[in-house]
Design a protein that fits this description.
With 120 residues, the chain is α+β, with helices and mostly antiparallel strands. The chain has two helices and six strands; from the N terminus they run αββββββα. Strands 1-6-2-3-4-5 form a six-stranded antiparallel β-sheet. The radius of gyration is 20 Å and the shape is elongated.
Length: 120
């Protein structure tokens, strides 16, 4: 009985983790990359291809080969990032929701395992 509950709970947890990816990775071929999934007004964290510090950006628009945005809603300084320098873009809102979902799922799985072990 314990192995069955533990197996089901671990499968459920891994399903949550695998199905909730919030990162879009980009290839070296700039023309093949689709930046149309970036939405104006949302905050993204851009990882750079050269390994330099990640750039947090409130996305505004794309002009030519440049991604344009602001540092934050309070800081209206314009930031420009070359498309060729971007390795991946992560939607911070989706990442926060994913983390919260994983924590809730883990708590639920722990509750199921504890209650099943006490029932025996």
């Amino acid at each position: 009985m314990k192995a069955s509950v533990l197996l089901k709970s671990s499968l459920l947890t891994s399903l949550f983790v695998i199905s909730s990816c919030a990162t879009t990775k980009y290839s070296e071929n700039i023309q093949g990359n689709n930046y149309s999934n970036l939405e104006a007004g949302k905050t993204y964290v851009f990882s750079m291809r050269d390994g330099s510090k990640r750039q947090k950006l409130l996305f505004r628009n794309i002009k030519g080969d440049t991604i344009i945005g602001m540092a934050s809603k309070k800081d209206s300084a314009e930031i420009k990032i070359a498309k060729s320098a971007v390795a991946s873009a992560k939607d911070t809102r989706k990442a926060n929701i994913t983390t919260a979902g994983a924590v809730i799922a883990a708590a639920g799985v722990a509750a199921i395992v504890i209650s099943a072990s006490r029932a025996d």
